[in-house]
Structures are given as C-alpha cells and as structure tokens.
Amino acid sequence: MRKLARPLHYVPTLDPHLYQPSAQRPVRSKMRELRRDTQVMPHSHPWAQMAISTGGVIRLSMDHATYIVPPNRAVWVPPGLRHAVTMVETARLYTLYFLPARDGAGAQAEWMDQPAWQQCRVLQASELLRALVRELSTDSDAGPPLSPLALQREHHLSALVCDELRRAQDMRLGIVMPRDKRLLHLCESVLEQPTRHASLQEWALDTGASLRTVARLFRGELGCTFTQWHQQVVLAHAVALAARRMPIAHIAAELNYTPSAFSAMVRRSVGMTAAAFLGQHQPQSAGN
Question: Best exposed site among 88, 116, 126, 231 by fewest CB in 10 Å?
C-alpha cells in the first residue's frame, strides 16, 4: 500500500491586480518558484489564464474537476472560474493572464470567445510556446513601467504565444469530480492513490455505502462506470510519471498494469499509442 497523502502547504496568490492585463498589455505573465505539496489557494479573476510549469507536475482543481498537468502541457482556465493550483513537484510556475476582447483586447483576442476556449483545457505545449513563456516579462506593476522597446517586444512575444495556443493539441486529461459527498470522498482517495484498491467493492467500503449505491452514483453523477472514470485517473498519473522520464514499462507497473494491458488501455481511451500519448517517441521494449 502507498503512503498516505502528504499534507499541503497553502500560500496566497500573488496579487493578481499587480499583473492585470490591459489594452496596452493584453497578455501578462508572472512566475514563482514553489515547493512540492504547495497549493496556491482557490481564487478567480475576470481574465483568462494559462498555467505551465518548468520541471514539475501541477494539479489544477475546481469544484467538480481536476487536471494533472506535466511540464510539457499547459492548462487553460477561462475567465471567472474559481480554481486552485497544487504543485505535485517542486518547480517554477508560470501564470499568464489574457485580456478578453470585450474588455479592450480587440479583434486579436476574439479567438478566446470561441466555445472551445470557454472551458478548461489541457494543451500540448510546444517547445516554442515554452520558450516564449520564459521570455515574457514577469515584472509586476509595482516596479517601473516597461520601456517602449521592451513593450514592443512583449507585444511580439504575446502574439506568438496566442498563435501557439490556438495551434496546440488538446489532451484529454481532465477528471470530472462528483457533488455527492460520499462519492467525492471516494474519488479524492482514488485520485491520491489510484492503486490502493483493486476493485470498486474495496473502494466502496471506505465510503460506508454499498457497492450498488456507489455504482449507481457513478452512472448518475458522472455519466460513466467506475472503470471508465478510474482509467482517466490512471492516464493523468501516467502523464505525471512520464514527466519524470520513467519508461513506459515502469509506468505500467507503477499503475498495476502489464505493459501490453496498459498500452491497450491507452489506445482504447485516447486513440493513440502509449508512446505518442506520453511523449516518448523513442523505440520501446516489446509490448509497448
């Protein structure tokens, strides 16, 4: 059995109004180095956000969904959505704010009004996107204003960031969370330790509800079976393990799969090979 989840260290968000995007600076960036098991407390803001880390996995949580995001992915959060960010590993966390078109960003930001950008999304972050994020100014409004040349450079970088975002591939890494308190407790336990139990019946014992009740709640609240939901959790944890450069065979074993069963599950769930999904395009051992 795995160790119980470690306690979190909570920190407030850096004052978002010191990084508020404007018509003059429609894309703003901030960065902070955070230790493992640190959570930026729940908050919201009237502009859109992209979060991406360097070298560590982050978890973005909302009331009824969770996203596990490794360094080669980014997570998009539409305006006004309350969320919290937890560092699964020590890393630098970059947060980019995007001014919507209706608030003064103009036609160049109209892409954010499309339905796809009105919901949370995990996106494949290209090398160019990651490089652009590192180049954006992370100075707050508490310091001196940018020079005209620096402002012009920021405009160019921001335009490229937006272009790369629009081109980025969607990754299905979201995990829907229930409202029912009994089922929520079960789902949070699975999310923390997905291999703790082998069957729904064993998980149900922790809730005080019967197997039939828990199975009914999964279908009624989440619109899927426990097996289908659990596979999404496994995929998210697999991505986090792959970010540590763990071989696919080791990832499969860590998640209680054989390599062939793991590869079949990934292909069935996301329509691609395990190597492609995990960004490990080098030749793998047999069964992968």
Answer: 116
